[in-house]
Model the fold of this input.
Amino acid sequence: MRKYLSGTGLIGTLTSGYALLRGANAQKFTWRTGLGWVSWGITLALTIGTIIDIRNASRGRTVSEDSPIHGKEAKYYSPRDAEKELAKRRR
Done:
């Protein structure tokens, strides 16, 4: 769990969301503010998708071809996580 929460993508996403939230108090809502929030939402969705892909790769599952870690699954593979996954499936 620690490797997901301390990832730079998640930290950057949360930091930019906090900056948007602080700036929202000082100004009225405009189309530029709306675009900023939409952009932040897309960034958050991409970050969560990458976390899910890393988790799947670490457990030996396949990762979709459009993932940024496709082809690098071996880097994230963890035999311990794969064993846990196998034990869950056997139950």
